[in-house]
């Protein structure tokens, strides 16, 4: 099965049941089989309706209204050959559905089950097409006194569904033959539930139609229409139970039917959300992350490389990392940039503007200035010892590209938060857009079908058909408009079963976007009017940088005018030196924060508090997002057991992720699990590493004690036992302090790493924790 087959169509690669090769064509491999499994039972149900119902009816008064309405028609017996072929088509449809179910449950191999399903559904649709064509040629209704019944239109819709099903599965087979994915189809919990619930729902719908057709005297097609309107809670009022038994049955039937419908809609919503999250949203997030990595620079040296500008020649001819450059050499980098143009800086976004050329960007229109020397001291793009980017994308040099100036780890952290926020908005509006498009298609296309089908019976205009579709989609069902023709009622059964889940999904998506936007707008209006909130003006200016920049420029201009009126004051040289020294202060990295020494009791106490906090945060909805300072504390507790960069790398390979980069492929913010759960797992791994080390050290100490007990003088036995007891009593404290002490003071800084000055925001008083 793993070989290659040479055919006239090219090279086909048949993959085995399970492999670790990359997969593509995700829609064909995942969505198509589940859609086919959902379509199959509906096609079987409509095929049953086409079999048990006569296909032609005689209309009273030669079809003249109102006596000649379709509801008043008398059925005409079908030819014997039509019944036999119709039953054969239904049998093939059931067999195809059975093989598809066997494929999902792995009772039958994929290479056998899927072709069998495709062939069976193809035969079923081909037979139905043959019957429909033959009936139109050999035994058509005589107009205007005769017309087609609902059974005929049910058969047409079933034929369309069979064709759609085997066509989609044929695409799935082509993908497998081309080696896009392996044979096996792994069902998740909600996917398996979706298949079972769909089968149960259509079984309940068809079974109810059979019961009400017997109890209330409806035809099977009318009973199916009645059950559909009942379960969907539309309730037009054109059909209702005609006796006490029917009214008694409709009570439990409607309740359980609504429950089944809700379960199916919930499973469909989870299925659509899972596919969009895993295949579309994740891909969008990865594109944003790669774009952020490709645009990020950490110092002027990297900026020169990105812009394709030649770097200045060093005095001694040897190129050194940016962190080892002197102040004069760093100034040369700034002058090299100013030689070719200037930088337009807005927050972290830097746009290079060549000399004698204007930027094409209309986004940044504020003051342009060259880079200050203070911005040169930037740590390297790594978040830990010896850790750097993986698979950095190829950089396209463009002198007008907008680069991201990420000076330290906090900037990289915030850049990843921006990626997450952009992805969150994309996810919301992507789902909402798809739901709106699907709703519009069902609304406008459905209105066209009802407009045509109800033209003879009720003479609907297109606007009236739109009104009816809208009332039905929202399950309002006033009853002033309802389908009365055979074609209209048959199409309504299919259309409503497809439309209601989509409308429910649309309403759910609107709750995440439109409704939340209305809530935010209401709160904002209250903050500025009847319920003013402190700090609202500052937050407004922070969210509108252009307005803030304009106000700051106005204030600066006024201060300059006042300074001119007062006269110039000679500046104290010490103040200028102090400002330059302040520019030399760099933000601390997490590595320096980890290197701060703490006692064993303190770090173990904080580890316990961190685990408790992470466990509590897992219960919070929406999922908790931690600040950079909180992540710094968690990172200290995750990495404190590693004694050296080499040991850190070794433990990472054995125990799991310890070191990462905020915007790298291994960023914890790219994980599918919430941040609190991810941190809890890493903290538990940290405890496991610590206890494993204590166990190894205990065994070594025990073996060392056994080797020395034979050389111990008799008189010193008691003192030796006392020493061992003392060592055991303080074993945890001694070992932990040795771990922390080993790392304390060691700082293997890479290119552009931070200075030894530690920001006070990372310092926590002894006995207190940011996590407590």
Write up what this structure looks like.
It is a single chain. The protein has 772 residues and is mainly alpha-helical. It has 5 domains: 1-186, Butyryl-CoA Dehydrogenase, subunit A, domain 3 (Up-down Bundle), CATH 1.20.140; 250-296 and 411-532, Helix Hairpins (Orthogonal Bundle), CATH 1.10.287.70; 298-407, no CATH class; 534-563, no CATH class; 590-701 and 728-762, no CATH class. The protein contains 23 helices and 9 strands. The strands form 3 sheets. The chain has a 4-stranded mixed β-sheet with strand order 6-9-8-7. Strand 1 and strand 2 form a beta hairpin. The longest helix has 52 residues, at 244-295.
Keywords for this entry:
single chain; 772 residues; mainly alpha; Butyryl-CoA Dehydrogenase, subunit A, domain 3; Helix Hairpins; 5 domains; four-stranded mixed sheet; three-stranded antiparallel sheet; 9 strands; elongated
Summarize the topology:
Elements: E1 4-7, E2 10-13, H1 26-52, E3 56-58, E4 74-76, H2 80-105, H3 110-138, E5 146-148, H4 150-177, H5 189-215, H6 220-231, H7 244-295, E6 296-297, H8 300-307, H9 327-340, E7 341-346, E8 349-354, E9 402-405, H10 409-453, H11 462-473, H12 486-512, H13 514-528, H14 536-543, H15 545-566, H16 573-584, H17 590-595, H18 600-617, H19 628-639, H20 645-655, H21 675-708, H22 717-729, H23 731-743
Parallel strand pairs: 6-9
Antiparallel strand pairs: 1-2, 3-4, 3-5, 7-8, 8-9
Which radius of gyration do the C-alpha atoms yield? 37 Å
For the record, the CATH class of the largest domain is Mainly Alpha
- H/I helix tally: 23
Largest sheet, in brief, is: 4 strands, mixed
> Quick one: how many beta strands?
9
Weakly predicted, low-confidence segments = 1-10, 358-399, 575-588, 709-772
**What is the name of the CATH architecture of the largest domain?**
Up-down Bundle
Structural class determined from secondary elements: mainly alpha
Structural shape: elongated
Summarize model confidence as the mean pLDDT. Answer: 76
Helix content: 55-70%
Strand portion: under 5%
Reading side by side through the largest sheet, how are the strands ordered? 6-9-8-7
Query: Would you tell me which CATH topology of the largest domain applies?
Result: Butyryl-CoA Dehydrogenase, subunit A, domain 3
End-to-end separation in angstroms reads: 58 Å
**Domains counted in the coordinates: how many?**
5
